[in-house]
Every structure is written in C-alpha cells, then in structure tokens.
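Fold this sequence, please.
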Amino acid sequence: MATLKNNELEQEFFELIAFMVTSARNLIEETKLYGPLRLVDAVSRLIDVLQKHDLSSPRLETIQRQIEEGKYRVMDSEEDFTVFLEGLVMALLPLMEDHAGSP
C-alpha cells in the first residue's frame, strides 16, 4: 500500500516538476509577468498535491485561496498584479508567526 501511495506521490511531483521545467523554457519567449504567475501557480499546484495526501494545513489553504483569487490579475495590469503579489507576501508574515511556536 505504501508503495502505491509513493508511486502516486512521485507521479504527482513529476507532473509538477514537468510543469515547472516547461514553464522555465517557455518563459524565454513569454512576457515578463508570466514568470511570477507561473511561480504562484506552481505553489497552488504543490498545495493541491499536499492536500490530496493529507499533508496540508489551514495556513497553506489560506495562501492557496489567495493565489487562486488573485493570480489572474496578471491579465488586468502589471500594477494590479504587483499589488496582488505584494499582498500575498504580506499575508505570509502572520502565517509564519502563527506557526513559529508549533512543533
């Protein structure tokens, strides 16, 4: 059973790695804002994998929710997307502090 779960997890990580490597290659020709978009999208995908394997947490789900709500601001304007990313960074701070005392 553990081997099956390990194989499934390895496949999911492989797919995420393939997404990231392909994104890196495609970014050579894409607009500069696609880099940050792909990074936050990769974070959301990683959280999906962790959730599927019961390895998530409320703070990861909070970040994922914020990513999913704001990542397409890249289509609006560079300024809107930058504000979204800055807000996302600032949202991490209290989540780090909340977890600092946890084992």
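Residues 2-100 form one domain. The chain has four helices and no strands.
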